[in-house]
Amino acid sequence: MATNIRMTAGRVIFAIVSIITLAACSEPAEEVAAPGPSYDMDALKAEARAAIKEFGPALKTELQNAMSTGGVVAAIEMCNLTAPDIAVATGERHELQIGRTSHRVRNPANAPDEWEAARLQEFLVAAEQGVALKTLDFGAVVETDEGAVFRYMKAIPTGGLCVVCHGQELAPEVVDTLGKLYPEDQARGFEVGDLRGAFTVTRKLN
To answer: What is the predicted pLDDT for the residue at 36?
Structure first.
């Protein structure tokens, strides 16, 4: 009797195992998403840095020229009128969009979007921890409604030339000109070495 019970139990276990195995084999295989396109991040970052290396000095040269001929007020007016054109021309040459943004903007048109604001906050935290501003940058491929986009930001340190119109103590004529051209100006009170903002680069990938 005990032998029969053991044999019956064995058959039941075998049957259960067989059913489970059959069920597993009959289920469709789990879908594996196809890998997305791979991008040469080093090349994308290199191109972004090349555009910034062209854009930054071009702006500085124009500012210095304006300042030498018409003073600080002329430099502010040049920045207001000419800087956007320099950005567009540089972007076209490199087939991307380039500009500047900041956690404290002068021109509302340069206000950071959500992604840029997050990167600026990371730069500020890193700067507080003693990381050299000239080493701070960030690049990533971001998926948008219009497809994949490469985004890149590089920190802009506050230099000696910057504090003339972005510093803590501004000449009366500078304050007057800023008030007329940029009534919502927040970009004052910086010291040499502070994080002034960042260059920002965007490039569509498809």
So the answer is: 52
The backbone torsions φ and ψ at residue 136, rounded to the nearest 5 degrees and listed phi first, read: -85, 115
132-169 pLDDT per residue, tens: 999 999 999 999 988 999 999 999 999 998 999 999 99
Task: Report domain extents, the chain.
Answer: 43-204
| Cα distance between residue 33 and residue 93, in whole Å | 37
3-state secondary structure 46-71: HHHHHHHHHHHHHHHHHHHHHHHHHH
The total number of residues shown for the chain amounts to 206
Q: What angle is formed at CA 123 by the lines to CA 120 and CA 128, rounded to 5 degrees?
A: 130
Q: What's the pTM?
A: 0.80
CATH of domain 43-204: 3.30.450
Q: What is the dihedral of CA 166, 168, 173, 179, to 10 degrees?
A: 60
Distances (CA, A) of 13 to 3, 10, 188: 15, 5, 79
Cα separation, 73 vs 77, in Å, equals 6
For tokens 């000239």, name the residue: 134
Highest mean pLDDT among 21-30, 37-46, 76-85, 187-196: 187-196
**Within 96-185, where are the H helices?**
114-128, 163-166, 172-181
Contact 201, 48 (CB under 8 A): yes
